[in-house]
Every structure is written in structure tokens, then in C-alpha cells.
Write a structure and sequence with these properties.
The protein is α/β, with parallel strands linked by helices. It contains 15 helices and twelve strands. A hairpin with a 5-residue loop joins strand 7 and strand 8. The relative contact order is 0.14.
């Protein structure tokens, strides 16, 4: 695998940091998640392929164990507000002095500097501060956040993983690590660059819900079907739009105004909606299958995992609990990802193994556990 031999220390957190760690693990890195002790249940659901070691970083012994585990690490991912790692004595100045090749990835909401850098926030706050949330939603309605996908995962975890990979590549030339400020506001803004640079295209303007790609256009919209399901329409180009109309049994010449006549878009939506509700999703899928009309069914997660196209491409795997998970992307021809089918690791299940690997004796490990500085979790059978 592409990242075989790379050792990553990931301090347990929520959403973006686990996502970055899972990407690295999927492509072959050895990712050790450092969990808190006396924690009954991990909230991280992106721990596929990771090891779990439970340490109390507030105790000197736990702190020392963390440093020893990290001494030969290639990457450290920390999810805290600025200053937290420094207060624990684990800031980049200390960690990189011991390990100058370390890539120290800092994943925060607002960034390492600025007047808001220590404020709490969630995905919705970071998307709002990036300028993106103002563009999302239907006309006449409040801005609508698309779950927590944009900041936590696109602007956060994915951008952090990309930064780590770039730093790993640069290290092959300099031999040195570096600090990465992977904050969710700047990451969200960056992945949305096209919304800034394409303002003149009328694709997503300030008048929310009235433009080409923000549910303003009737040919870039979702429609309810007879069985209460939905179809997604993305018939933007004229040649695709004509095939879309043919599938509906319509003609632009005889039945409808010109495609780009914005003042007619509300009426055209009503026309399309009345037609879509006359057939089931399965019937519409058959009509538009293998055409260039850009019309597809809106699938649930379970339906997506079972769709023939996704099955051929191997887009989903089934873990040992029988649940579907997305497989890693992109697909590499020589060194593809090889994700484990194991479900989530138990907290601390690998504490003994990880500590032994960095030189702790069995007696030392038992002392750490007895003092509460470390913890060994129960390993469930294949989960």
C-alpha cells in the first residue's frame, strides 16, 4: 500500500481528525489512536484499521508513555484548540525537537491565530464563517447546512490528510517535518474556491436558491415520484436537457419555454413535478438508464451499497458487523488501499502491544496500568 511504513499518532477527537487518520490508515499507514482512560465508549466512528492505546496525558507517566510512542512517529494529528497541547508539554517545539522529521498536523476550527482561535464551534459555525453557508438553501428559506460534510470532512479531515501527504513528500527532499495548520474555516473556503471564482457564471449567486446549481433551475433539482421516493436531475447542457425532456415526453419547441428563461423556471418546475409524480422511482430509473439525460435515483445508504454500478466498482464494503461502509478513494493501480473489514477497535485494546513496541517491559506496563496512567481495553471477538 502507498503509505506502508508510515507511523501516525492520532489523538482521539471528533469527525475531522478521525477522518484524516482513517484516510492514512486505509492507504497503509500504521495509525495509533490515543484514547483517554476510563472512557466507556468511543464516539469516533472512523477508526477503521487503527490501533487504540489508552493513556492519561494528565499524569506524568502517561505523558512520558505518549512521548515514547511518538518518538519515532512520522505524523502526529491533534484535534484541540490552540494552546492545549502546549499546556500539556506536547507542543510542536517540544515534540519536533526530539523528532525533527515529525509532521505535526493541528486540526482546529478557526485556526492557530486570530481573535477567535480559541472559540468553540461546530461544522455549521465554520461553514458560516467561510462564506459558504450563505449560499446554501432554497429561495425564501433560511440557509441550510448539508449535515456536517463540508467543514468537518471536506474542509477538515480531507484537507488535513492532503497537507500531511504533501509534507511527507517534501520531507523526502529536506529530511525535515513541519507544522500543518489544518483549520476548518480556511479548509472550507478553499474547497469552495469555485464559488468565488465562478461568480460571473450565474451558477450560485447571492440570491440563494435562484441560480443554476442551488435549486433555482428546474433542470438541476430533485423531484418526488409516485412511490414517495425521489429522482435527481442534472440536465445542464442543452443536449442533455433535450434527452431529459424526451424521457418526460416533452418538447422544448412545443411544450416549454427556452431552457434558460429564468422567469419561467418556477412554472417549468411545476410541470416537471407533475410528470415525475406519475411514475415510481424504479420506472423513471428504467426510462433514464443508459441515457445522457443526467437523471438518477436518489438512493438511500443501503440502496447505494447494493446498486449494480457501485457493486462493480467496489464502492462499499461490508464490515464484520454486517454494515456497509464506503471504500477508500481514489483507486490506485499499483498500490491500492486495502481497508480492513473490522469494525471499530475497543478503547485501549492495543495498549500493551504499542507500549511493548517502544521498549516498555511487561512489569513497566503493569505498573502504568495499576497507576491509572494507561488502560487495557477488552478485545471483542471480531466485533
Amino acid at each position: 500500500m502507498a503509505l506502508k511504513g508510515v507511523k501516525v499518532i492520532e489523538i482521539a477527537g471528533l469527525a475531522p481528525a478521525p477522518h484524516a487518520g482513517m484516510i492514512l490508515a486505509d492507504f497503509g499507514a500504521k495509525v495509533i489512536r490515543v484514547d483517554r482512560v476510563q472512557q466507556m465508549l468511543a464516539s469516533d466512528r472512523l477508526a477503521r484499521g487503527k490501533l487504540s492505546v489508552a493513556l492519561d496525558l494528565k499524569m506524568p507517566e502517561g505523558l512520558e508513555a505518549f512521548k515514547r510512542v511518538s518518538k519515532d512517529a512520522d505524523v502526529l494529528i491533534e484535534p484541540f484548540r490552540p494552546g492545549v497541547m502546549e499546556r500539556m508539554g506536547l507542543g510542536p517545539a517540544i515534540m519536533m525537537k526530539e523528532n525533527p522529521r515529525l509532521i505535526y498536523a493541528r486540526l482546529s476550527g478557526f485556526g492557530q491565530d486570530g481573535p477567535w482561535n480559541k472559540m468553540a464551534g461546530h461544522d455549521i459555525n465554520y461553514v458560516s464563517m467561510s462564506g459558504v453557508l450563505s449560499l446554501l438553501g432554497r429561495k425564501g428559506e433560511n440557509p441550510a447546512p448539508p449535515l456536517n460534510l463540508i467543514a468537518d470532512f471536506a474542509g477538515g479531515g480531507l484537507m488535513c490528510a492532503m497537507g500531511i501527504l504533501m509534507a511527507l513528500f517534501e520531507r523526502t527532499k529536506s529530511g525535515l517535518g513541519q507544522v500543518i495548520d489544518a483549520n476548518l474555516v480556511s479548509g472550507t473556503a478553499y474547497v469552495s474556491s469555485w464559488l468565488w471564482m465562478g461568480r460571473d457564471l450565474g451558477v450560485c449567486g447571492e440570491d440563494r436558491g435562484s441560480n443554476l446549481l442551488d435549486t433555482g433551475a428546474p433542470f438541476y433539482e430533485t423531484y418526488r415520484t409516485l412511490d414517495g421516493k425521489f429522482m435527481a436531475v442534472g440536465a445542464l447542457e442543452p443536449q442533455f436537457y433535450m434527452q431529459f425532456l424526451q424521457g418526460l415526453g416533452l418538447s422544448e419547441d412545443n411544450d416549454l419555454p427556452f431552457q434558460m428563461s429564468k422567469e419561467d423556471w418556477p412554472h417549468m418546475k411545476q410541470t416537471f413535478a407533475r410528470i415525475f409524480v406519475t411514475k415510481t422511482q424504479a420506472e423513471w430509473t428504467r426510462i433514464f438508464s443508459n441515457t445522457d439525460a443526467c437523471v438518477t435515483p436518489v438512493l438511500t445508504r443501503d440502496e447505494a451499497a447494493e446498486h449494480p454500478q457501485n457493486k462493480v466498482m467496489g464502492n462499499f464494503l461490508k464490515n464484520t458487523k454486517g454494515a456497509h461502509e464506503p471504500t477508500p478513494a481514489p483507486i490506485l493501480s499499483r498500490t491500492p488501499a486495502m481497508p480492513t473489514s473490522m469494525a471499530q477497535p475497543e478503547i485501549g485494546q492495543d495498549t500493551q502491544t504499542v507500549l511493548a513496541e517502544v521498549g516498555y517491559s511487561q512489569e513497566d506496563i503493569e505498573k502504568l496500568i495499576a497507576s491509572g496512567a494507561a488502560e487495557i481495553g477488552q478485545v471483542s471477538s471480531k466485533l
